[in-house]
Design goal:
This protein is α+β, with helices and mostly antiparallel strands and 84 residues long. It contains 4 helices and 2 strands. The protein has a two-stranded antiparallel ribbon with strand order 1-2. The longest helix is centred in the middle third of the chain and has 9 residues. The chain is elongated. The C terminus is likely disordered.
Length: 84
């Protein structure tokens, strides 16, 4: 809906890559593998990729507890600035 937002949504496909330097997650092997496994999804550069992070921790420091806590963080992968 916004030309400014639209520009950021396709930046990962149009930015200048530097050999050996990871400027954006799209430069990484995981992103490239995802694109090769899901070519229909990756054909549209405006499709949003999400990153899921989890990390288990024990609230009370007792490993014998029958439960644990797993925070889940879901973030949108974008670039908010022009990278050289």
């Amino acid at each position: 809906m916004s030309p400014r937002t639209a520009e950021h949504m396709i930046w990962h496909q149009s930015h200048n890559m530097v050999d050996g330097v990871m400027v954006h997650p799209s430069d990484g092997e995981a992103w490239k593998h995802f694109n090769s496994v899901h070519p229909h999804f990756s054909a549209e550069s405006r499709n949003v990729r999400l990153r899921l992070c989890t990390d288990e921790f024990n609230l009370f420091g007792s490993f014998a507890a029958p439960y644990s806590c797993w925070p889940v963080i879901l973030t949108v992968i974008t670039c908010h600035r022009r990278c050289v």
